[in-house]
C-alpha cells in the first residue's frame, strides 16, 4: 500500500519548486497564493521537514526539497502523458467501409493513403468480405455494393458501371477468338447468386461472340475472383473478368484484352442506412470514395436481366 501525501499538496509543491514562486504556482494551478502556501505547509508538517526557505521576494528549495523535486516532477510528467494518451485513444475516430475481397484489394487498397490526406484525424478500417455487411448492426458505416441499386433500407449512390471481357497475359500471344481452343479458360464461382441471375459466364460470352463451338465449361475454376485474375496474370489461361477490377492490371500491361465482345454488367453503388448520410463517418467515406472513383463514373445504364450482386462484388443472393 502506497503512503503518499495528498496529490493536491504534491502538485502545489512541484509547481512552486519549478517556478520558484508561490504566486506563479497559484496562477498556473488556478488557486490563490494563500492556498498554495497552506498546502505546502501541510505537506511539510506531514513530512516532518521544511521544503522551502521563505525569502522576501522568492522561495528557495531546502536540501530535502531539492531531493524530492526531480522525482516528483518526473512522476507528474508521466501521469500527464498517460492521461493524454488515453484521451487521444478515446477520441480516435474510425470510419469503416465494407466491400468484397476483390474490390477492396483492387480498387480500395491502392487509394488508402488519399483517405488520410483528405480526412486528417480519421482512421480508415476496410471490412473485406464477400458476405453482405450488416450496416444497421454496426459491422460497417457504409458499403460498396454491385447491382441495380435497390437495397431495402439503404440509400444507394451510383459510382461506376462494370463490364466483362476476355483478359489474359500478353505472353500468351492470344489475338483472335479462334485461339481460345488452345488455351485454358479460367472461371470463378459466383456462388448462390448464379442460380437465379444472369451472371457473366464463358457460356454467355460464347453466345454473344457467336462461338458456339467453344467448350465454355472446360478449363480452370476458382472459388473467388481475385484468384482467377492472378491466374490470368500468371499466364495460366484467359479469364472473363471485370474491367473495373482489372483496370490496374490493364494499365500496367500485366493483362491485355485481345478481343471482344464485352458483356455488360451492373453498377457499383456507395450505400449507407437511410438517415445516416449526415453521420461524420459516412460523410468522410463518401467524400473519399467519390473523389477517388470520380474518373470512373459513367452514365451507362445497368443491363437488363441481372440483379443485385451482393456487397460490392459479393456473390450472395
TrEMBL record:
It comes from the Bacteria. Residues 5-62 form the HTH lysR-type domain. InterPro entries: LysR-type_TF_proteobact-type, LysR_HTH_N, LysR_subst-bd, WH-like_DNA-bd_sf, WH_DNA-bd_sf. The keyword Transferase does not apply. Keywords: DNA-binding, Transcription, Transcription regulation. Signal peptide: none annotated. Belongs to the LysR transcriptional regulatory family. PANTHER family: HTH-TYPE TRANSCRIPTIONAL REGULATOR, HTH-TYPE TRANSCRIPTIONAL REGULATOR TRPI. This is LysR family glycine cleavage system transcriptional activator. It comes from Labrys wisconsinensis. The lineage of its organism: Bacteria, Pseudomonadati, Pseudomonadota, Alphaproteobacteria, Hyphomicrobiales.
Amino acid at each position: 500500500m502506497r503512503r503518499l501525501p495528498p496529490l493536491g499538496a504534491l502538485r502545489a509543491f512541484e509547481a512552486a519548486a519549478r517556478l520558484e514562486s508561490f504566486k506563479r504556482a497559484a496562477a498556473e494551478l488556478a488557486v490563490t497564493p494563500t492556498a498554495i502556501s497552506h498546502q505546502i505547509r501541510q505537506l511539510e508538517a506531514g513530512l516532518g521537514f521544511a521544503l522551502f526557505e521563505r525569502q522576501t521576494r522568492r522561495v528557495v528549495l531546502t536540501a530535502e526539497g531539492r531531493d524530492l523535486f526531480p522525482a516528483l516532477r518526473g512522476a507528474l510528467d508521466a501521469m500527464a502523458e498517460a492521461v493524454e494518451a488515453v484521451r487521444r485513444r478515446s477520441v480516435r475516430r474510425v470510419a469503416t467501409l465494407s466491400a468484397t475481397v476483390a474490390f477492396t484489394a483492387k480498387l480500395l487498397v491502392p487509394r488508402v493513403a488519399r483517405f488520410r490526406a483528405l480526412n486528417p484525424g480519421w482512421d480508415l478500417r476496410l471490412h473485406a468480405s464477400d458476405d453482405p455487411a450488416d450496416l444497421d448492426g454496426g459491422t460497417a458505416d457504409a458499403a460498396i455494393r454491385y447491382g441495380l441499386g435497390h437495397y431495402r433500407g439503404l440509400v444507394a449512390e451510383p459510382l461506376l458501371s462494370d463490364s466483362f471481357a476476355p483478359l489474359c497475359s500478353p505472353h500468351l500471344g492470344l489475338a483472335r477468338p479462334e485461339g481460345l481452343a488452345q488455351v485454358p479458360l479460367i472461371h470463378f464461382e459466383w456462388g448462390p447468386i448464379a442460380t437465379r441471375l444472369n451472371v457473366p459466364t464463358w457460356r454467355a460470352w460464347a453466345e454473344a461472340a457467336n462461338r458456339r463451338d467453344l467448350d465454355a465449361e472446360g478449363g480452370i475454376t476458382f472459388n473467388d475472383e481475385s484468384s482467377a485474375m492472378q491466374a490470368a496474370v500468371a499466364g495460366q489461361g484467359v479469364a472473363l473478368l471485370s474491367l473495373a477490377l482489372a483496370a490496374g492490371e490493364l494499365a500496367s500491361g500485366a493483362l491485355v484484352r485481345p478481343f471482344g465482345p464485352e458483356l455488360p454488367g451492373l453498377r457499383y453503388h456507395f450505400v449507407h442506412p437511410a438517415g445516416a448520410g449526415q453521420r461524420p463517418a459516412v460523410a468522410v467515406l463518401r467524400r473519399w470514395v467519390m473523389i477517388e472513383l470520380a474518373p470512373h463514373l459513367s452514365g451507362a445504364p445497368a443491363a437488363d436481366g441481372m440483379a443485385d450482386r451482393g456487397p460490392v462484388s459479393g456473390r450472395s443472393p
